[in-house]
Design a protein that fits this description.
about 325 residues, mainly alpha, 13 helices
């Protein structure tokens, strides 16, 4: 195998080992993950992500390390926005809190495969026809504007897999412990937990359409005509995805407090989109990219903490099901 192939295989074995360790030791028994435990796990995943940045620095130099960190921060920021949707899905299906971690854990594998396919395909496409950078950048700018002005909320009932499962698949209407499949009255049935898993995965597929071009753009060296580094894009994406589960439980009760986050994400997507469009004519340095992405994220979080959401808006969001809905979840069958 070539050095590049060895790097890919080694990294994926490492990631699978970490996830398997989480499944086999820390998540062997179904339990409610409290904020303190989730914060510790999140800190561990972030530490591992930055330790890997040290590896990139030693193997490739500081420029690639900056590209990796910028990609990781960008994907982590976009992942926080995904958590709002995960919260809505869990509330819609009334998933018991002590089973939510299993859905997110198995969802990681599907997300890693989809992100790898998207990233490799995107990099190959750019290498084949470099001009596709321009429409990809335009899509990101459009997404940024839409995120800024649109008040639309995710509606799980419109998910195509959910509609398909309701019409054609043998699904029981009750949760069976933490099982995805169960034999009931002699029939082998899917449980609602399996449906939730695939709704989460298919929803992540939609998010990948935006987040993958963003991270591909961020890890592109600031040199006219340069191609993005698929390994940096995937590794930064992978660390953000595997840490998403712990981040969800750490922030689930506070997600509604980050009401200015979408403005920060909109600014990040717009900046990255513009970078893709003008990169061949006006390269933007790695340090500037990291500073802008981190600054937009930090400012939106700080603004959310300083300028609280009006009580009327908080009440409306609770009614619409955006709040943590812990009572709905805990009263599930």
């Amino acid at each position: 195998m070539t050095h590049t192939q060895i790097e890919w295989v080694t990294f994926n074995v490492f990631i699978v080992f970490l996830v398997a360790l989480d499944m086999g030791i820390f998540s062997r028994k179904a339990h409610v993950i409290h904020v303190r435990e989730a914060m510790i796990r999140s800190a561990v995943w972030v530490a591992l992500a930055f330790l890997f940045a040290g590896y990139i620095y030693l193997r490739r130099g500081h420029q690639d390390a900056l590209l990796y960190i910028a990609g990781y921060v960008t994907e982590e920021a976009l992942s926080v926005d995904n958590l709002f949707v995960v919260l809505i899905i869990f509330s819609y299906f009334q998933v018991p809190r002590h089973h939510q971690h299993k859905v997110l854990l198995w969802g990681i594998f599907g997300a890693l495969v989809m992100r790898a396919v998207f990233i490799i395909a995107g990099v190959q496409l750019v290498g084949w026809q470099h001009w596709v950078f321009y429409p990809m950048g335009a899509i990101l700018v459009y997404t940024a504007v839409k995120l800024l002005v649109s008040e639309e909320q995710y509606e799980p009932e419109k998910n195509l897999f959910l509609r398909f499962s309701q019409r054609f698949l043998p699904v029981t209407d009750k949760y069976v412990h933490d099982q995805f499949f169960a034999r009931i009255d002699g029939r082998f049935l899917m449980t609602p937990l399996f449906v939730v898993l695939w709704v989460v995965n298919t929803t992540d597929l939609l998010f990948a359409i935006d987040s993958v071009p963003a991270v591909v753009a961020v890890v592109t060296p600031p040199v006219p005509g340069a191609l993005p580094d698929a390994f940096l894009a995937y590794s930064s994406n992978a660390f953000a995805v595997v840490g998403l589960r712990s981040l969800y439980f750490a922030l689930a009760g506070m997600l509604d407090a980050f009401h200015y986050l979408r403005y920060g994400l909109s600014a990040i997507l717009a900046f990255v989109g513009v970078k893709m469009i003008i990169g061949d004519f006006l390269p933007i340095g790695n340090g500037i990219v990291l500073a802008v992405v981190g600054g937009c994220l930090a400012l939106s979080v700080i603004a959310s903490l300083i300028f609280k959401k009006p009580p009327e808006a908080e009440e409306a969001s609770t009614i619409d099901g955006i709040d943590a809905s812990s009572q709905r979840v805990e009263s599930a069958p």
